[in-house]
Every structure is written in C-alpha cells, then in structure tokens.
Amino acid sequence: MTAQLAQVDLPEFGQSPVRPEISGSTYQARLDRLRERALARGYHRVVVWADREHSANVAFLTGFDPRFEEALLIVGPADDPAVLVGNECWGMAGAGPVPLRRHMFQDLSLPSQPRDASRPLADILTDEGIEPGTTIGVVGWKQYDRPDQLDLPSYLVDEIRALVGPDGRVENAVDLLIDPADGLRVINEPEQLAAFEYAACHTSNAVRRVLFGLEPGLREREAVQLLQWDGSPLSCHLMLTAGDRASLGLLSPGDRPIERGDRFTVAFGVWGALNCRAGFVVEDETELPTGIQDYVARLVGPYFETVVEWLEALRIGQTGAVLHDIVARRLGDPFYGIFLNPGHQISLDEWVNSPIGPDSLIELRSGMAFQVDIIPATGTDYFTTNIEDGVALADEALRSHLAAQYPDMWGRIEARREFMRDSIGIDLHPDVLPFSNIPSYLPPFLLRPDHVMTMSR
Questions:
Q1: First-to-last CA distance in the chain?
Q2: Cβ pair 100, 62 in contact under 8 A
Q3: Which residues pair with 345 in a beta bridge?
Q4: Continuous H helices in 1-101
Q5: Strands 82-85 and 71-75: what pairing?
Q6: What are phi and psi of 83, to 5 degrees?
Q7: pLDDT range class, residue 249, cuts 50, 70, 90
C-alpha cells in the first residue's frame, strides 16, 4: 500500500453540546484505589504536590486544581484527604466534588501576600500522620533513577524527611498514578473517556477551522483566533507560527503576516486532547521553495504510510516495542529526525507517560487514551509534517458501555472509523476509538485543505 494525494470531503462529525462531568463518586473511587495501592506499598500517607503547570495528579484525585499558587494533598488510609492551600485557593479547595479538609498554609501564597494565618508546617504535617518511623509516598511529576529523588520544593521534602526521622522512609511514588502499564491515570473510566472525546472535538474542530480558514496576509495572531478557544483549561500554550519561526515548533503566535510559501504549524491542547498539523502555505508543489518540490514523495508520503501502519497495529495487548519498531523501521533514517517516543498517553496533562519505546514489553490496555504523536524534525528545507490526534482503546465490554451511555459520542466514533476506512484508507482494529474530528486528515499544501494524504491498496 502506498500514500497518495486525493481530494476528500471532510464531514462535520459534530460535538456534544455539554461537557460530560466526572462524578463525585468517581473521584472517591480513585482515592480508594490510591489507598489500596499505598497500603500494598507500605505507605502510611501519600503526599501529592500540585502547581499551576503540574496540577493533573491532584485534579484527577479530587477535581481541585490550584490557580495562581501551589497545593499539597495528603491522603491517609481513612477520612477525607487533607489539602494545604494558600490564600487564593482556600475557596476553590472547599468547593470541589469531594470533601477536603483544608489547612491554610500561606507559604504557598504569592510573594508578599499575608502570611499571618498559618500554623507551622511541621505541626500541620504531624497532625496529618507524618511522624517518626512512618513511610511516606511522595507524588511529584516525574520518576527518576532513585526512589529518593523528588521534584517537590526542598523546604517541603526537608520537613517531611525530618519528621519521619532515620527510622522512616520518604520515596517517589508518582508511578502509582502515571506508570505507563497500570498507573491510575492511564486507565480511564468511561465517563473520563467521554470527557476526553468532548475535548478532542473542541481542539480538532478548532484546528479544522485554521486549516480551512488560513489565508496569506493574515497575521499569526489573527489566524490563531480561528481556533475559537472557549476558555477550557489548557494543557499547553497555544502554538501557531509561520515562516522560519515555525521550525522551532513550540512558539506562540506573533504579529508577523503569514506569507504564501511559508512553513506553518498549529497545535491546540486542552485537558484531555491535543491536535496539531503542519505543512506549507501553498496550493501545490510548484509553489514550494526550490529544491523540495518532492516534499510529498520524500517526507509526507513515507510519514503518512508509517502513521497508517502504526494505527492499524494499535490494539489491546499490543506491546510498546511493536509500535516503536514500526516507526524505527520506516523513519529511522536520520533525515526524518524522529527522537521522541512515537505516541504517548494523554490525560489532563498533554503527556502523562509512554509505554512506547525500544524493547518495551508493556501491553496496551482497555481504557488507555493515546496521542498519536510521531514528529519528524528534519532540520532541513523540507521542514516537517505532522498528524497529532487522540485515540482510545476499549474492549468489547467498554465499547458496549460507551455506546449505551453516550450514544451521540458513539455515533461520532463510528462515523470517524467509517470515514478513515472509506475515504482515507485506514482500517482500525475494533479496539481503537478515534476521538478527533479531523481523523488522520493531513493536507500537506495548506491552501488546498481538501487535498489530503490517502492510502491506495
């Protein structure tokens, strides 16, 4: 099978009018599962850190995500969790879907704000069961080579270590939540998947508006308005750039006018979803810069064929190594510049973890949500091409549940699968649920958004 350009009509797949909400009982069940895992590890308490960028673990467990300042969640074997918050998060922490016992700790507040209403940190932590001889699991953001390596502020870690003393233990426990094989946050409940599909409709419809509304002469800040961001919490900053800056990928839009012949990239992510596309602001290969008129044959075609094989290999029970090796075999030439994991798990944060890597024997499971994220970085005039869309895995029981509880969502999933098969030429395994409303829709020449890559068999 080979990739080719073809004219394709992209249907309107629609979107639910209201975002599915996560129930309080689901949050309570998550806390209970965390307690079970903590008990099996021998942890007396689990301490979970959050700041503005890394709030996903606390938000997943409680529905509370701090704004402006940081927060510290303490989960014991019983009773409601405790949370340490500063001045501005006090109200939010008391209005979430699960009850939290609040401690005012104003060192979490912004600089120069009042700090006259807090008890000493050691007193708060002692009252919450962090005491000599206890074993404390600490959840920051990342795993490291040693269990004693933590990425919380040193004043907190120092205090916890001092309190447990030489007979206690403090160790990195973030794997309880983000282990790529079975972390609590990588196996999603049906209602969480429904919320992610809603988010993916929002981000993919937004990127679609950019693809079909892009015109030379628009400034980058004007083009980004086509996204029509509705205030949904962002998982990363908005990215849209044209010209030489587009090769840097992660930049925010500026005031530069978009010109015919420019490189172009756009990425938009909210909690649970991200979509990205990249290409050239031209109508066909004749308008490409000198020397890269074979852009489709040299880069886009091989890339698209790789993504198709990757998607068609995706299923429950597949190992991360198989998915990695597809990309390594097809795009291993240094020209393509692939160096990140070809695909990763997605949640409230854009990158949770990834089971996809060389020699990974991790088997993919029902309930996992993934970002198709295979990014060439040629470093040449060929620039890049990119499909970033969200998919989830669901066994027959989960698929039946989703179809019954979320029939509109299920109708969109079925329509996307049919479009991908009949119009694009991608035959997904039944386990794979496409969430994007631009499912594998890749126009390399952005002034002809109806001319996209397809597979001929």
A1: 5
A2: yes
A3: 370
A4: 24-41, 56-62, 90-93
A5: antiparallel
A6: -140, 135
A7: confident
Across 151-186, b (16+ Cβ under 10 Å) vs e yields ebbeebbebbbebbeeebbbebbbbbbbbbbebbbb
Nearest to 135 by CA among 176, 171, 169: 169
Evaluate whether 445 touches 283 at the Cβ level (below 8 Å).
yes
Question: What percentage of the chain has pLDDT greater than the value 70?
Answer: 100
- Looking up tokens 């409230």, which residue turns up? 348
User: Coil, strand, or helix at residue 344?
Assistant: strand
Place of tokens 């429950």: 316
| 3-state secondary structure at position 84 | strand
pLDDT of residue 250: 86
**Residue 163 DSSP class:** H
Measured from the Cβ of residue 25, the count of other Cβ atoms closer than 10 Å reads 10
Identity of the residue numbered 383: F
Chain centre distance of CA 75: 25
Are the beta carbons of 263 and 372 closer than 8 angstroms? no
The band of 456, judged by pLDDT with boundaries at 50, 70 and 90, is confident
Query: pLDDT tens-digit profile of 262-315?
Result: 999 999 999 999 999 999 999 999 999 999 999 999 999 999 999 999 999 999
Which among 228, 206, 369, 355 is positioned nearest to 275, based on CA atoms? 206
Distance CA 200, CA 123 (A): 44
Q: Which helix H or strand E contains 416, and what residues bound it? A: helix 407-419
Instruction: Report the candidate in 284, 384, 289 with the shortest Cα–Cα distance to residue 331.
Output: 384
Read off the pLDDT band of 349 (50, 70, 90).
very high
Instruction: Label residue 290 exposed, middle or buried (CB < 10 Å: 0-12, 13-18, 19+).
Output: exposed
Q: What are the helix (H) ranges across 50-152?
A: 56-62, 90-93, 121-127
Q: What count of other Cβ atoms lies within 10 Å of the Cβ of residue 231?
A: 6
Domains and CATH numbers, the chain: 2-16+184-456 (3.90.230.10), 44-172 (3.40.350.10)
Per-residue pLDDT at 80 exceeds 90: yes
Tell me the Cα Rg of the chain: 23
DSSP 328: H
366 burial level (CB within 10 Å; 0-12, 13-18, 19+): middle
pLDDT higher than threshold 80 for residue 457: no
Contact predicate 66/89, CB 8 Å: yes
pTM, two decimals, is 0.96
Contact 223, 298 (CB under 8 A): no
Structure tokens at 428: 């997904």
Task: Check if the beta carbon of residue 301 is closer than 8 Å to that of residue 3.
Answer: yes
